[in-house]
Amino acid sequence: MKIRTVGPILILCCAMLIAGCRKDDTKPENPDRRNLQEDKPLSSRALATELYELARMCYLWNYPWPDKKKFGLDSLFINEYAKVAALNNELEAIKALSPNKIDKWSSLDTGPDPLQPYYWVESGDHLYQSTFGLSVKRKINGTYYIASVNVSSPAANAGLRRGWEVISVGGLPVKGTAMKDVQSKFNVNGTLNLVIRNQTGYRSLSLVKAPYVYDPIPYSGIVDLVDEETKEREKIGYMIYDSFKGDEDNLEILDQQFISFKNNGIKKIIIDLRYNSGGSNQAAGRLLDNLAGARFEGQTSYSLKLNSILWGFSQITTSPWTLEQEAFLKARKAPDRVTSLYDYLKPLWSPIKFRNINTHIFEKICFIVSKETNSASLLVINSLKPYFDNNLIIVGQDTGTKNVTTVDFSLLPVEVRDERTYDVSLVVGYFSNVNRGIVDSERGITVDNNANVGDNPAFGFGPNEPCLERALNLLD
Question: 20 to 30 Å CA-CA from 22: which of 229, 275, 333, 466?
Fold first, then answer.
């Protein structure tokens, strides 16, 4: 039998990454309310028509496609709030076209709003605060704990650590307090005041808002296992990966993390995705290459199933309607993302193959997951299952159900974009995996037998944290 050596995990250094999308970004300042009532260069009807045309061509479930009148495109929106409400109603009508109305993922982003707070909730008991770089999680008994802290954030600079109990936020005692009331205290612009309790007692902390560089690998290390009888040692790699970031700097950091595992002779690895709700398919592919590229080079990792219009576009390149489509697609991507939908989808029209990028073979892989694990995280796990079989272990709690890919489009031309971005995220494809076919978008990933264990934020990250402890036992 093997036991874990006493002492902390050996921490592997990771460079910090540039901030990306969703829960990790620091929220910009809110615009003045009066600006929201001003007329925009693009009319309400033009915005609604653009959304209609985008969905008609790109939405995964686009047949049968109803007439424009169904979406009320002839209606006039009297002000900014009415415009946003009408566009949301149109999007809801589009989502209702999905089989059994399963689409929970397409959404409208209209940029900063004076009513939009500096937080948002990923799940019913987990509150993220991107401005200060931390999240808190509520246990069943109503006690709140620090669940995660981003490296170099104001929370990290103030010394916060996972596992510390939160006593009060902005003067409000939080034990037993409803989540919405705790949320309201996080909606601050300059300084966030906390009282926490750790092993040494109570502490009062003031977190000052400041820019920081987001790091999607906030914690990594090596757990040293020792056999009691033979004294033989085995090293297990461990890495928390909180978000899939697809820019080159972040992909390079991911590669460097795996080079470190390779240099330490790691054959068994634990990837902690419990707080990873998804991100870039490119980053998911890079993680797949690092985990399995050396062993399964050239074999299919996954493919993307599109609607018949986009799929036809991938097969025919000479007819006039295809050239018209290409012009349409090249002009319609949100700013600061991939330059066009055409460029984004073109690599995915053919099956994605494993690439050998670090010549290192892992024998066993364990994923830690939760109900917050979604999207690109599911893509990675489902793509590896056919290849690793019993050497792939799933620990934690059953995951979310987003086995589809979304693309962000801008409804506004580049020359008139302002703080009201009018970006829409649409489901454009299903993921398909080897020997599994199209993955059911209404089902997530189920954890293995004897591997169901909940996330307990009262424990810091380390070999005694319940999820990691179970993962180590199953890898042994």
Answer: 466
pLDDT tens per residue across span 12-66: 433 333 333 333 343 333 333 223 334 444 567 778 888 888 898 889 998 888 8
Tell how strand 364-369 and strand 392-396 pair up: parallel
Residues 51, 76: one domain?
Answer: yes
Residue 28 in any domain: the answer is: no
Least confident residue range of 145-154, 314-323, 329-338, 392-401: 314-323
Angle at 220 between CA 219 and CA 225, to 5 degrees: 130
Q: In terms of residues, how long is the chain?
A: 476
Q: Are residues 281 and 147 in the same domain?
A: no
CATH number for 439: 3.90.226.10
- Domain of residue 298: give its range: 2-21+213-475
CA distances from 27 to 167, 307, 358 (A): 25, 34, 36
In terms of pTM, does the model score above 0.85? no
- Work out the number of other CB atoms within 10 angstroms of the CB of residue 236: 24
- 348 vs 285: CA distance, rounded Å: 11
104 and 150 in a single domain? The answer is: no
- For the chain, the domain total comes to 3
pLDDT tens by residue, 257-299: 999 999 999 999 999 999 999 988 889 999 999 999 999 999 9
Tell me how far CA of residue 458 lies from CA of 85, 143, 145, 169, 303, in angstroms.
Answer: 41, 9, 6, 18, 40
Residues 256/17, Cβ–Cβ less than 8 Å:
no
3 state SS for 325-338: HHHHHHCCCCCCCC
Give ∠ CA 159-162-163 in degrees, rounded to 5.
Answer: 115
Chain centroid to CA 213? 17
Distances in whole angstroms, Cα of residue 128 to Cα of each of 225, 307, 378 = 34, 34, 21
Q: What is the CATH number of the domain that holds 165?
A: 2.30.42.10
Q: What angle do CA 62, 68, 71 make, to 5 degrees?
A: 85
Residue 97 φ/ψ, nearest 5 degrees = -75, -15
